[in-house]
Amino acid sequence: MAEPPGRSEHPVAADDPGAAGPLQPGERSRLRLEVFLVLALSLGASAVYSVVSLVAALTRGPLSEATATLNASRSDRPYLDLTYQLLANATALVPVVLALALLGWGRGGTAGSAARAMGLDLRRPGGDALRGLGLAALIGVPGLGLYLAGRALGVTADVVPAALDTSWWTVPVLLLAAVKNAVLEEVVVVGWLLARLRDLRWGAGAALAASALLRGSYHLYQGVGPFVGNVVMGLVLGLVYRRTGRVMPLVVAHFLIDAVAFVGYAAARPLL
Q1: Which residues on neighbouring strands pair with residue 217, listed in sequence order?
Q2: Helices (H), the chain
Q3: Which helix (H) or strand (E) covers residue 160, if one does?
Q4: For 104, which DSSP code?
Q5: 3-class SS letters over 36-102
Q6: N or C end of the chain, less CB within 10 A?
Q7: Which of 207, 204, 212 is nearest to 236 (CA)?
Q8: How many CB atoms lie within 10 A of CB 206?
Q9: Where are the domains positioned within the chain?
Q10: Is the pTM of this model over 0.85?
């Protein structure tokens, strides 16, 4: 896709935020408000709730005795539960559309052009899939190790990846949840946030650290191990994005990690 003169195809390709020149009057305030609103409607709010949940768990007793349940049933009536699950996954993606639209409009384009600029497309399916698979292996195994170490040290809650009642739609819904997590987190926390922090003239290192810490913060309800693991994951994925300018490999990696955890646990649950 052809880009306007002076604009890179990839929003975070340049390391020097000053290369774009000074911000126009009122632009800094507008960008700060955009960052606040998008995060307040999505993962920023999740981070606040996560901190409160962690405090609640710590004041209740040892963190090792706490349980963090993901993908829980919302009703004892199967088709009503399915409806709730689909609605929850669909509405969680609205901030992604909002972030892409604001990013695109701010640069004289559309949500679609913003998605293509950050590599959220299917132009390179083979390369994206291979990179995603490699990243999933690189991140997933050490992440599991950090979780087990945290459990052994008593600083990580017992994480239950899937607690849905068994039904014909259980696996499809868990895979949909993995897609939702991958798209929401990688687009908002990496593609959009790094672009907007660069627009605000943040340095590359500071922006990457902020993105990684945000990722870790909304996992704090799970304890110290998942927080550390997700901060490291955020640093790795952020560096890969800065190198490639494509968010799709990150989405693939995140999807694979969550899909294995969710579906694998659901399959093994009757044996536990």
Answers
A1: none
A2: 27-40, 43-60, 78-91, 94-106, 111-117, 125-153, 170-185, 193-199, 204-217, 224-244, 248-268
A3: strand 158-160
A4: H
A5: HHHHHCCHHHHHHHHHHHHHHHHHHCCHHHCEEECCECCCCCHHHHHHHHHHHHHHCCHHHHHHHHH
A6: C
A7: 212
A8: 11
A9: 26-93+125-271
A10: yes
